[in-house]
Amino acid sequence: MEFLYPGILYALAALAIPVIVHLFNFRRHRLVYFSRIDLLKNLVQQTSKTNKLKHLVVLMLRILAFSALIIAFAGPYLPKSPNAIAKEENLISVYLDNSLSMSLKGANGSLFDEARQMAVDLAQSVNKNDRFLLITNDMLPEHEYTMTREEFIREIGSITPSTNTASVSVVHNRMKQLTLSESGARSAFLISDFQKTSADLANLIPDTAITTYFVPTIAQSYQNVFIDSCWLNSPVLFPGQSVSLTARVYNEGGTALKNQSLALLINNSRKAIANFDLEANSFSDIELRFVVNDEGWQNASLQITDFPVVFDDEMFLSFEVSGKLNVLEITGNTSGKWIEMLASGDPLFTLTRRNIFQLDFQSFVMYHLIVLNELEQIPDGLKFALDQYIEDGGKVLVAPAATQSARVYNQWLSGHGVSYAEVQDTTRTRVFSLQTAHPLFRDVFVSIPDNPDLPLVFKHYPIKVLRKENSLALITMINGGPFLSEISTGQGKIYMIPVPLNDNWTNFHRNPLFVPVFYRMAFLQPGSERLYHIAGNNSIIEIPFIPSNAEQIIKIAAPDSLIWIPQQRNFGGITQFSLSEGPVQPGHHRLISEDSTIAFFSVNLDRSESRLSCWSQDELTKEILSAGFEEQSALSASDIGKSGVKKLVNPGSMLWKWFVLMTLLFLLLEVLVLRFWK
Description:
Strand content: 25-35%
Distance between the termini: 39 Å
Strand order of the largest sheet: 17-16-18-19-26-25-24-21-22
Helix content: 10-25%
Number of strands: 35
Largest sheet: 9 strands, mixed
Shape: elongated
Structural class: alpha+beta
């Protein structure tokens, strides 16, 4: 008989304690005087011998019960004969964590090298006929098939660190799925550092058909400073504008840091730098201000200096600075020229004015903003073209006609969850409040006085909201009704005002508020705040206003000059690219067509790998116990040896149940002795 966990047998030494207590009577004797004991002498001797024998029997039964229980926990088994083992084919699944956090230094080199050596030792310690299944964070298709021991060891040598991450629950479920149809005994070994961000042990579901073991690798203690995320505080980007960028920097360590620096580079030229302090285990939002003088795509990066964890010290981002904005104004018979006066006086705008009978619907995709200015009718063709334009990310500003009922607009607007009241409200009112936190007004006002000069409203068509979940009042009047509403539909926006731009209805077009509102509507572009994508997240890249052409092949040029063709889809002037199947790596990427660059996008590593907090051996044991696994499922690196793994995979006939039954039997005999032995 052999044992899976022979170390537990040391607990048998504790059985000496009750033996000592029973053999030596530590009770103090009390002297009792009695007149004559001649008649009681034989009775006393007989009772004493009986009690001693009874106590010894009880002692023996208790020792046997606890001995059997300890042996049961040690995992006793009858080993199989070598011939029987050689004929069996067990299936052993191995998860080798090759994420970037495994590049940290352990007791014997990097954690990744230690994990690879464990996998090799595991393969060499089991039966040569056993089959192997390898899983990494890359989830490669070639790893979906079983391998021989030689193939497995050879494949282990070809695995390299990867930028991809995978949660433990996803890996465990994949192991169960890939081995579902396999015969024979199934075992799974998960070798990882078990970072708390990815080791979601509470989501694991044990499977009685597969025995799972968790083998943690232990890294040396490190303090890591990394750039977690960044965002532009203003989505409006045009040449010469002062722009504010905020970066969130984390300190994953127990020591406070002083005088750290964060640098911003744009097109390889340093544009800003900021110094900061960081408390232990905290983060700080650091603002950098810069000016971009050139229009077009800008490739930027944020950089800090940190050692020895360096894979998260740089964050890449790309953004476009608009040169000119194309605006289409669709006019009615009575439309004023306030939009034309505003746009024609600014070189940033290219304004096109068209009557409803002079429209080219195919050209809508080329415009950043479409204005419906006092239309007295909306043909069905225009409705369909506007719906498609908005669905694909376009923006439309609607101003009702002064000489016509709002019913004309409602036939189209009701499909987007909003409409105008068909009766005018002739009550004089004024604008009362603005949603200053909304991107439309962000960074517009340095400060707002107590009594600002806000637009007056002499009469209006009240805006009726039919679906509140996609509507927001950006400007509100004193009577509580919206003066400017934003309706989100598809990927685009509809902006509504309740008045025509006419002096008899309002002075909004003469108010200083009119200019920034119109500018912001034109500048705010769908996805303009998407500065970067995360590697391994199956991101979708959307580039607006690329003409749909079946013969046009868009390619991606990676930072290392590798060029590949992504999955792409063209619809309504929007071109989508999928990064799920390409060799995506951190850095700046180019979208090219016929050797010309169309756009840029940036990719960064998943910052969950930067959080180096891992489950310790004790914490790991508690977590897997809570998930329903046995305590012995948590192994240490020393347990992965030639003898230890072979016992786990080929244990032979397990005897622990018999020893549990023996424990219960001895306890039952003890109860009977105490109850019936008089």
